[in-house]
Amino acid sequence: xxxxxxKYLEGKIILSSQQEQLVGNCFKPLVTKRNQILxxxxxxxxxxxxxxxxxLRVFLTTEDGSESTRFLIFEGRMGTAFPSFILQQPSxxxxxxxxxxxxLMLSNTDRQRLYQEVxxxxxxxxxxxxxDYIASIERIESFITMDAKARYDSLMQQHPQMLQRLPAKxxxxxxxxxxxxxxxxxxxx
Amino acid sequence: xxxxxxKYLEGKIILSSQQEQLVGNCFKPLVTKRNQILxxxxxxxxxxxxxxxxxLRVFLTTEDGSESTRFLIFEGRMGTAFPSFILQQPSxxxxxxxxxxxxLMLSNTDRQRLYQEVxxxxxxxxxxxxxDYIASIERIESFITMDAKARYDSLMQQHPQMLQRLPAKxxxxxxxxxxxxxxxxxxxx
DNA sequence: GTAATTTATTGACATTTGTCAATCTTTTTA
DNA sequence: TAAAAAGATTGACAAATGTCAATAAATTAC
Lengths: 189, 189
What we know:
Chains A, B: Pfam families: cNMP_binding. Chains A, B: This is Crp/Fnr family transcriptional regulator. Chains A, B: InterPro entries: cNMP-bd_dom, cNMP-bd_dom_sf, RmlC-like_jellyroll. 2 copies of one chain form a homodimer. Chain A has a domain at 3-117: Jelly Rolls, CATH 2.60.120.10. In chain A, strands 1-8-3-6 form a 4-stranded antiparallel β-sheet. The longest helix of chain A has 25 residues, at 121-145. Chain A is an alpha+beta fold. Chain A contains 9 helices and 8 strands. The model of chain A has no long low-confidence stretch (mean pLDDT 94). In chain A, α2 runs antiparallel to α4 (108-117) and α8 packs across α9. At the A-B interface, β5, α3 and α5 of A face β5, α3 and α5 of B. Chain B binds a DNA duplex through α9.
């Protein structure tokens, strides 16, 4: 098993060496360049990605060519185009790497297999989904209760590394604002 | 077991009569009036609510007294102040009934008990959480990609009953807009 | 290393949305 | 049923944010 995945699982679940091997085999390594498309809009998401190194972006594209970032996934985290992956339906969103990345891919079938063959895996996974869901609830609240400036400040406080690492236009559409507005917010202290 | 709950579980899980009794006992009935507070902001959510009849509102209050609706929960659905319930931390949000309601309450400890004693319960619950999470992702997307009018039209199409049943000001803050703006959107075609 | 491309900033202006206040309507309660 | 409370609408105006265009800066690719 990849040491980064092992670290991720530490404290979340205890695996026998046999189980560890099974889990390790289910996560297939993938090394990508920057700006590589992992999932095209319209295709069905087959994998969840664990990010060992690099960064993924799940984003929407509209008819007129504009893009909106639904999620960003950094080192030590898992993610995918969740609705498509769970419902096994064509994805509204696409997935791309924002940096050269090292990934571990878990297929939907292997995911089911882990549920069945590794006691405790489903509980661990459920708890992970619960936390992701909570994060998304908090993001919804940020849209309901905060203006653009407040959302930016909040992001700056919670994920300062995001701002340094990613182009501002990605941050802007993650926040749901135009890149010009973000640029002005930054200078406006 | 309450017939509404039985109907909810139908097709999701198969229970022995003994298990059915256990589940039925875990969900405690509660009859409320309109505008009754089920959870105060600052308290920790102890229950998930299944709505047999009526409607719940999970909402945020700010210092200046304004309110924002985080979630609305109608008949045949379950919900609570999710972050507080899962993390067992003081809730940012409060819960109130918007109508006289019939509820079934599941405590956190009984929830754990069902996980342990009813095979398949956790799987069913996980799938429910996945769907709720998907719904919240779609709501995030609505904030990133749509303006107020588009969000209103979308809600009107997906949940027309909500608009008829609830005061417009509740709808407005669910959409993240002022009640005046909503009022204008409605007349504007 | 330089050209090409992408990204960021800034200004001018348009549009959307919010706020406040007044009034009208509906619903609730006594 | 009448009074009171809550909710909805509308106008006037302010504030926030978007759009378009020009330019500057940074990054990427050859």
